[in-house]
Amino acid sequence: MAVDAEIEFPTIEFRSSDLKQGTEGWNRLCKRVREACETFGCFDVVYKKISTKIREDAFELLKELVEVPVERKQKNTSPLPYHGWVGPCEQVSVLYEGFGVGDASNYDSVKSFAQLMWPNGHPRFTDTIHTLTTQMEELNKLIWLMLTDSYGLQEDSLKMNYTTLVRMMKYLAPPPGEYERGLFAHTDKPVSTLICEDKISGLEIEVNDGQWIKLTNLSPSSFVFIVGDPLKA
């Protein structure tokens, strides 16, 4: 996979002063969001309303999660692909491990997942992951509102019944000197995806001309918004 680092990936900062609907700042922001989605299908959003501490706490807790015994990880099941635990394997990737929590903005859903992973539950894990999930869901809805506004649509144009799926993923480093994909190239099936990365760069995006760019030097307050297949029509 060829990676072109010279393409400038759009970064859009959501300042509090521009988040009041109907203002000039809001309208400019909506235009930039729409253009980024139309051109790249994704963008880097800098959103400081979600604290770096809650992110750091979440990633520290994920280190505990990946150390859970395999027999407990296997309890994270789902009939839907990639909605449960996927361990390193040849069919997907030997470098990838992922967990899934459905309806994750519901506190009880996260609590039930924690009780599967740890016999006595894990209140701190539950509180932290639920808080971060809820805040990310609010950011995702804000971006949807900007898109509907930018196209002159009514606010309820993209309203739909949905639940938030949280995927918690770990990628192993390939052997020294080798390039190996952590996961096969794919598009996202949900309406949209919001990615919260740790400080290790690894995400690659294919742009319209077929070139790939590797996202590096993201802000500690960055999230990557990706347009899913249903919105690409």
Automatic annotation (TrEMBL):
Q: Does the keyword Metal-binding apply?
A: yes
Q: Which Gene3D superfamilies match?
A: B-lactam Antibiotic, Isopenicillin N Synthase, Chain
What's a Pfam family in this record? DIOX_N
Which residues are in the Non-haem dioxygenase N-terminal domain? 10-103
| Highest rank taxon of the organism | Eukaryota
Q: What does the record give under GO molecular function? A: metal ion binding
Answer yes or no on keyword 4Fe-4S.
no
What positions does the domain Isopenicillin N synthase-like Fe(2+) 2OG dioxygenase occupy?
168-230
| PANTHER family attached to this UniProt entry | 2-OXOGLUTARATE (2OG) AND FE(II)-DEPENDENT OXYGENASE SUPERFAMILY PROTEIN-RELATED
Q: What is this protein called?
A: Uncharacterized protein
Question: Which species does this protein come from?
Answer: Gossypium mustelinum (Cotton)
